Amino acid sequence: MEKENNKTKKVCFPHMGNYFIAFKEIVEPLAEIISPPPITKKTVELGTRYGPESACIPFKYNLGNYIEALDKGANFVIQAGGGCRFGYYGEVQEEILKKLGYEFEFFKFPNDYNFLTLARALQKINPKVSIVKILYSLGLAYFKIRAIDKLDDYVRLNIGFEIEKGEFEKTFKLFLKDLEKDKKILSIRRTQARYLKLLKNIKLNKPKNPIRVVILGEVYVVMEPFSNFNIEKQLGAKGVEVHRHSSLSTTIHDLFFNKRVMKEFLEKARPYLRNDTGAHGTETVGLAHHSAKAGFDGAIHIKPFGCMPEVNAMSALHRISNDYKFPIIYFSFDSQTSETGVKTRLEAFYDLLIMKKQKNEQR
Amino acid sequence: MEKIKIGLPRALLYHKYHIFWEDFLNRLGFEVIVSPETNKEILKKGVSLAIDESCLSLKIYLGHIDWLLSRVDYVFIPRIVSLEKKEALCTKFMALGDIARNTFKKEIKTIEYTIDIIEKQWEIFGILKAFSKFEKNPFKIILAYRAAKKLERETEEVKIQKQFTQIKEADNEKPTVLILSHPYTTYDALLGKPIVEFLKKQELSLIYADIVPKKEAMELSKNISRDLYWTYNKELLGAIEYYKDKIDGIVFLMVFPCGPDALVVNLCQHKIKNVPITVITLDELEGDAGLKTRLESFADILKIKKIQDGKRK
Ligand code: SF4
Ligand code: SF4
Fold it and tell me: Is the separation of the CB atoms in A208 and A181 below 8 Å?
């Protein structure tokens, strides 16, 4: 019986940025994967139509992913948790999907951030796979995530200055393709090193003192370019050096390896925050304060509409912006946000930064 | 010597804890000043001070602080992160102090302390620390704390008993409606009160979800939701289960935008099948006309249903 059961498990999980290939690593040994189609307008529409109106964007995107995967034949849904409401998303999503008539099992990641607990929980998907094997695949996934972020960081800083347009993107795509095939930690490291070198060989035309901008905010919209209208790409195209701290690697690092990081961000956020302000909010304020002091040209704060911890952070951001004369622009995304609106405001912000920079340089 | 004036904004958790707060502060010899019932000015001020996307309740809260600033020495802003292990509150309640200080900058002096059961920061420790600069004798603080807690418990008990009596004595023709909302929505003069008054005029008997034996309600909430981890929402959900045989309908009041409630409402709509629910979302622009019609027709439905059910029996 048990055996039969496992064979027929068809697992799906949501998309997030480029990380799908890493998540795949975890699930592949356990069961068949049905990958949801890439996020499109339709995904968002589905999530919006069937999700509660005031749920935040990540909820709607994930729900859309699930519906599209269930339509493709998935019968097992994985939800990862995290964020201030995320832990509770699962139950609501499960109910909604059931109401829509889908038949499936629902699996929620445990909320304890510990690899062994995680592996044990995952083993329930397929008890025949050993814990060691699962731990190993978690390791592989982690190294893949790190590789992706490492290269992505470099791209973000430099893509605005490539001489031959499109080279970075092309190379990065090849990298993801190769990375997907890697099945050993060593080969992941090799792929990472090889492509980092290739990226570094791309010819740049970078001024000594480019405009440097920091991306701050809620992690899902920061990490899923579809949800933020490719804000980083838009900035890159204007010749901006884009910095961002938050990525899946840093999030995992903070949750699993070094829980003290929160305290450090709180230190950095002082005197604008005395206490933790929820989810990523404290990190946002800490990073904003730090970047303002470090002489960045400006910051872009992005969040899902109504995201509570980030809204909490904003009163502090306003003050930092005032005290340091540090320009910050704020974007909230929901399913009604218009792309042109974002574009126009981003352009105006860019013009402001340029003007400010020129004024400072003349002095 | 003139008494030190401590201000309590009549908003958010004031509506939940004011018995304790007021009594405790009075016992320590402070003059307690509570801002008036929410009015249009307070709302307007709050809306202009708050970040746009904050929930309406927070906007109102900031309006109340603004009213207090010129009249008090300190504003009292306890910070509540968690009240139970493995549970949490809305993140607003952990951020209030920082939001207030960032909004009012140098104009505000606060008394703050943290309650975070998960981190073993018990209320009494926080209170001892926060008040040590006013009262050198810690025993006095502890005594005041205990006495005020006792008063809070007793008042709570009286309220519950009163609601029980009302249910017992309810006449069989009047439908009973459960008002499901946070106390800071239910009892706010601009948010819940007008709705409650209006419903009373529709010849409904109203009971309140925040008046319920808390422990039992928390347990019962698991019947509706397996994973819910916001303490206050759990209490409210539990109240549905607790009163479910006694009620004919539920009016869910929520402010916009409220993260926790948005998901909880949705879950209720999926899971609660045999009691009619209506959801009223309050925002700063809410006009009266449409709302009244909706409430009226909801009341009508309940009344018709009540008569039919009565005949069947
Ligand atoms: S942190 Fe923001 S986006 Fe994430 S669950 Fe909370 S409100 Fe939603
Ligand atoms: S629970 Fe909702 S209404 Fe209450 S403070 Fe939080 S966001 Fe505001």
Answer: no
